[in-house]
Amino acid sequence: MGKHRTRLKILANILSVVSENNKVKKTQIMYQAYLSYKLLVQYLNDIIEAGLVQCGRENCYVLTQKGKNFLAKFCEYDQSCKSVERELDYIDDQKSTLEEMCPSTESANVASNTLERSLERSVQE
Questions:
Q1: Closest of 57, 70, 72 to residue 24, by C-alpha
Q2: How many CB atoms lie within 10 A of CB 51?
Q3: For residue 30, which of 61, 76, 1, 4 has the smallest C-alpha distance?
Q4: How far apart are CA 23 and CA 114, in angstroms?
Q5: Is the separation of the CB atoms in 56 and 62 below 8 Å?
Q6: 1 pLDDT exceeds 60?
Q7: pLDDT tens digits for 24-80?
Q8: Taking a C-beta distance cutoff of 8 angstroms, is the pair 27, 35 a contact?
Q9: What's the chain's average pLDDT?
Q10: Distances in Å between the alpha carbon of 14 and those of 10, 38, 94, 109?
Q11: What DSSP line would sit under 78-105, residue for residue?
Q12: How confident is the model at residue 121 (pLDDT cuts 50, 70, 90)?
């Protein structure tokens, strides 16, 4: 899996910052969610439109009930993804073990030809 965060992960990060700090300003969200100002503004507009966050007095953001529900659902989703990734890693390990136990004739031939060429060179020298 890639190292970049998905849109859902970024949204959840923003909502977590708002949730943990109760009333929070843009600058705090930007730094704690590791976003540029430009990206923060885009995502904030999205989550305000979705009704996940409200902008209150003094330009402070607060989490709505819908935002709390989103975070709870995201946590379930994230745990499921991690579980599936662990299972896929285990399956890949099993496949590698099986391939090591019985290498394909093609890769065995390549290895054999490489060894033969190396031996020929050493004899010629």
A1: 57
A2: 12
A3: 61
A4: 66
A5: yes
A6: no
A7: 999 999 999 999 999 999 999 999 999 999 998 888 999 999 999 999 999 999 999
A8: no
A9: 87
A10: 6, 14, 38, 54
A11: HHHHHHHHHHHHHHHHHHHHHHHHS--H
A12: low
Torsion of CA 35, 38, 40, 45, to 10 degrees: -160
Domains, the chain = 7-124 (1.10.10.10)
d(CA 54, CA 111): 63
Task: Enter the tokens of residue 17.
Answer: 């910052």
d(CA 49, CA 42): 11
Structure token digits, residue 102: 């019985």
Please give the structure tokens belonging to residue 93.
């390990």
Given a cut of 70, is residue 100 above it in pLDDT?
yes
As a whole number of angstroms, the distance between CA 46 and CA 61 comes to 13
Helices and strands (H and E) in the chain: how many: 5, 2
